[in-house]
TrEMBL record, chain A:
InterPro entries named among the record's database cross-references: ABC/ECF_trnsptr_transmembrane (IPR003339), EcfT (IPR024919)
Residue ranges the record marks as coiled coil: none
Role: Transmembrane (T) component of an energy-coupling factor (ECF) ABC-transporter complex. Unlike classic ABC transporters this ECF transporter provides the energy necessary to transport a number of different substrates.
Organism: Leuconostoc litchii
Subunit structure: Forms a stable energy-coupling factor (ECF) transporter complex composed of 2 membrane-embedded substrate-binding proteins (S component), 2 ATP-binding proteins (A component) and 2 transmembrane proteins (T component).
Keyword line: Cell membrane, Membrane, Transmembrane, Transmembrane helix, Transport
Compartments, as annotated in UniProt: Cell membrane
Membrane topology listed for this record: Multi-pass membrane protein
Protein name (database record): Energy-coupling factor transporter transmembrane protein EcfT
From TrEMBL, chain B:
Designated name of the protein: Energy-coupling factor transporter ATP-binding protein EcfA2
Keyword Nucleotide-binding: yes
Family: Belongs to the ABC transporter superfamily. Energy-coupling factor EcfA family.
PANTHER family (UniProt xref): ENERGY-COUPLING FACTOR TRANSPORTER ATP-BINDING PROTEIN ECFA2 (PTHR43553:SF27), HEAVY METAL TRANSPORTER (PTHR43553)
Gene Ontology CC terms, in alphabetical order: ATP-binding cassette (ABC) transporter complex
Lineage, highest ranks first: Bacteria, Bacillati, Bacillota, Bacilli, Lactobacillales
Gene3D superfamilies per record: P-loop containing nucleotide triphosphate hydrolases
Subunit and interaction comment: Forms a stable energy-coupling factor (ECF) transporter complex composed of 2 membrane-embedded substrate-binding proteins (S component), 2 ATP-binding proteins (A component) and 2 transmembrane proteins (T component). Forms a stable energy-coupling factor (ECF) transporter complex probably composed of 2 membrane-embedded substrate-binding proteins (S component), 2 ATP-binding proteins (A component) and 2 transmembrane proteins (T component). This complex interacts with a number of substrate-specific components, including FolT, PanT and RibU for 5-formyltetrahydrofolate, pantothenate and riboflavin respectively.
Purpose of the protein: ATP-binding (A) component of a common energy-coupling factor (ECF) ABC-transporter complex. Unlike classic ABC transporters this ECF transporter provides the energy necessary to transport a number of different substrates including 5-formyltetrahydrofolate, pantothenate and riboflavin. Expression of the complex plus FolT in E.coli allows 5-formyltetrahydrofolate uptake; 5-formyltetrahydrofolate is not taken up in the absence of FolT or the EcfA1A2T complex.
Family annotation (SMART domains): AAA
Stretches assigned to the ABC transporter domain: 3-245
Amino acid sequence: MNNIMIGRFVPGDSWIHRLDPRTKMIGTFIFIFVMLWANSWATYAWSAAFVFAMIRLTKQPFKLYWDGLKPIFWLILFTIILQLFFTPGEPVLFQAGPLKITVPGIINAIYVMIRFVLIILMSTILTLTTAPTSIANALESLLKPLKKLHVPVAELALMLSIALRFVPLLMDETQKIMNAQKSRGMSFSTGGPIKRARAIVPLLIPLFVGALQRALDLANAMEVRGFQDATQRTKYRILSYGSEDSKAFAGLFIFSVLFIAIKFFIKY
Amino acid sequence: MAINFEQVNFSYGAGTTLAQPILHDINVTIPDGQVTAIVGQTGSGKSTLIQHLNGLLKPTSGRIIIDDFILTNGIKEKQLTGLRARVGMVFQFPENQLFANTVLDDVMYAPINFGYSKREAQIAAKEALKRVHVSEKLWHKSPFELSGGQMRRVAMAGTLASNPDIVVLDEPAAGLDPKGQNELLNIVRDLKSAGKLVVLISHQMDHVIAVADHMIVMNNGRVAAEGTPTEIFNRDLSWFKEVALDLPKAGQFAEKLRQKGRSLSRRPLLLTELAKMLNGDDQHE
C-alpha cells in the first residue's frame, strides 16, 4: 500500500525544486514534444543524457525514479512485444504465421522502450520535485486564458488539489478497513474469481461511506469559513517567475537546438 | 490460553534501507482470564503491539505464543485464519467497518467467514448483539441509520459473534458520551466474567483502574513497566512524567492536595476511595 510511487512528492531544496512549477510543467511538455522527433541512436542518447542530467540536478537518489518506473513495467513490456512482432521490414530473422521478428522491429522496440522510460522519468522529475498543490496552482495559472470562454478554471484547480489531498487519507483508511475486515476473517487470496470479487465489497462500502462523510465535512468546513465559488481569491503561495526560470528555458532551448543539429547531421 | 511475547522486535519495511524500527525487545506475558490494559502515549507502539495478536503484523524477529499457536515471521497468511477466529480484534472507531444491508447481516459476516453455517451464524450473531445490548428492534435496520454509540456496539458484536477466546479492544471508549463509556466498561466486565482474556488499549486511566487486572506501560516501542494497576499507579511522580502517563483523577487530585500541604497516607486511585479518605476515615495530619 505504501509503495505506490506515481505522483509522489519528495520535499527538497535542489535547483529543480525551487523552479516555478509552471516552468517545470511547460519544460516537461517541451521536452516530450522535442523527444518525440527522435529517430536515431544519437538523438535518443542525447535525450537520455539530458534526462539523467536533470535527475542529478534534483539531488534525489536514483532508486526513487526506479520505483516510479516499476508500476508501468507491464505496459512497457506490452508495447515492446507489439513492436517486436508486428513491425514489417527486412531482413526477417524469425517468422511464425503472421508473427515475425525483423531487424527494424527489434530497433523499433528498443526505441519505443527508451521513449517510454524517458517520458516517465521526465514526468517523475516533475511530480517528485513539485508539491501537488503547486501543480494544481500552476495548472490554474496556465489555463487562465480559458476563463474567457467561461471555463471555471479556479474551481477545477481546487477540485484537483482536493482530490490529490485526499489520496493519502484514503490509502490510510483502506489499510485500516482492510485490517478490520481481515480480523473478521476476510480473505482476498482464497476462492475463485467471483468469490474474490465479492470479498472486496466489505472493503469498498465502508471506504465510500467514509469518503462521502469526509466530503460533506469538508464542504461544511469550507462553507462556514465563507467559501464562495466564482470569486477572485488570493493565494497563499504566489507563483513567481524569476531569472532561474529563464535559465531553465535557455537550457531547454540549447537542448532542442543541439537535438535538431544531431538529428540532421549525425546519421546513427 | 495466556499470551507470551518472546524477544519480539518489529520494524516497518524490514530489510530495506527505509526500515523503521517500532518495537524493541518485547518480553511480556498477558495472563489468561484477566483484563490487561496497554497504556502509553501516542506513538509508543501500543497499536503495533496489538496488531501482532492476530497476525495482522508479524514480528520481524522473536515470537509470540498465543495458547498453542506460535506466531513468527515465517508464518503463512493461510495459517492465520484459525488464529483470527480465536482472537477477536476491535479497532479504534470500529463503526467504520460496517458494510452490510442490515445489522444482523453485518454481525454474521465474521462467523460465516470462519466457517459457520448460515443458521449457526445467525444464532451466534443474535447472541453477540444481546451481549452488547443492541435492542432487537434494530436488528433488521441498516447499520448506517443507527446512532454513533449503537454503531460502535454493533461493530463490537461483529467481532464477538465468532465467539473468540481473546478479545482485543483498541480505545473502545474513544468519542463516546459518559453513558456510552460506562456501558462499554460493563461489556468489558461481562467478557471477563465469561472467561475471556481481554486486552484493552486506553488513554483514560480511570477506565484502566475500573476494569484492568494487569497493566503494560509502553514507551518508545519498549515495555516501560508491567504489573497490577495498584503497583503501577503507586510509582514515583517523576516516573509518570518520564513515560508521559497520567494518574487516575483521584490520584491527580490527591497530588494537588499534597502540593497545597495536605498529605494523605497513601495515593487513592478511585474517586470513592478519595472521598472516604477526605471524609476523615484517613486522617493522619
